[in-house]
Records
---
Amino acid sequence: MIQKLLILSSLLLLACCATSPTGRHQLLLVSEETAIAASKEAYLSTVSEMDKNGRIDNGAAVNARIRMITGRLVTEAIRMRPDTAEWEWSIIVIDDPESVNAWSMAGGRMAIYTGLLQQIKPTNDELAQIMGHEISHALARHTAEKMSLQMATSVGVAAVGVATDNDEIALTGAALAAALAVSLPNSRSAEKEADRMGIELAAKAGYDPYAAVSLWEKMGSLPGSQIPQFLSTHPNPQNRLQRLNRLAAKMMDHYQPDETHTVFLLQ
């Protein structure tokens, strides 16, 4: 009986294998469509709760900057994956000076924290690397991948609520899994993939690829407890700097800073 279950499980895993935009094999027990629908529910609940608690930064200057840079990146993301033109691309700025973080969900729903902007003080080129990295997580189906891993390893999604950024959001089922996926770190393979795709998106959108290197140097100067979650699974900092330098050199052919770049209008 156990042998039959193992064979059945193996066949299921094989049937649910997919390939990411960079050619990496992925386990997708959860479809991207399911992940997008669940992410929408989780995102809207989170935004509503944060807005009620006054944690959304609606400052005109900061939002205009974030939306302009992210909009240029999304234009390139759609060129990379034309089907994502139908996504409800959106971003919010979360007012949390202590949190040096940013995240994305399936379907192009993103957030960035004021702590990242205030403590890192990124240039526009460096900010493009951050948002390109997050957009790449969405393009590469990393939310669905993490939800699938939860399912495959029986990580509990049976709880009736999840704590997100100190706000209790009442979620259940797939929406809870999507919200939990944001709080869980990506694998090293997924992070490397987002690095590679993100630098390409930024270069094509007119942002200096070598800003990925200077950004990481700034991140590395933060106290250990402040290292952003989206960088927590990366390998040795020096190795990463060398890898980013190699990636940046390869992307210089895509870098056209003087061209006019289309800004996608985010929701």
Note: The chain has one domain: 18-254.
---
Amino acid sequence: MASKITTYAEFWPYYLREHSNINARRLHFLGTTLAILSLALLIVLQMPAFIFVALVSGYGPAWIAHFFVEKNRPATFTYPYWSLVSDFRMYFYWLGGKLPGELKKAGVE
């Protein structure tokens, strides 16, 4: 990435290109699912420790995907808010069957 991204409209295609490997996306999907389940347990059981569990289970698989599968730097380090929003966006697009179209628009084959 040569210059700083200034709008979310620019960030979203960049984010998708940084997740071009299907196995990296699968690890993200796993992490996001575990984070959502952890947050649900936080609400149901009212145990604050599940905040930590949500963070570790959400970011752990995602960062493994970046460092060992994609071999790139997680966007979270530079764009933490947009990255979090995009992770959930990618997750729900995948669940809804809309992710292939988004990937294609971003130039990911």
Note: The mean pLDDT is 95.
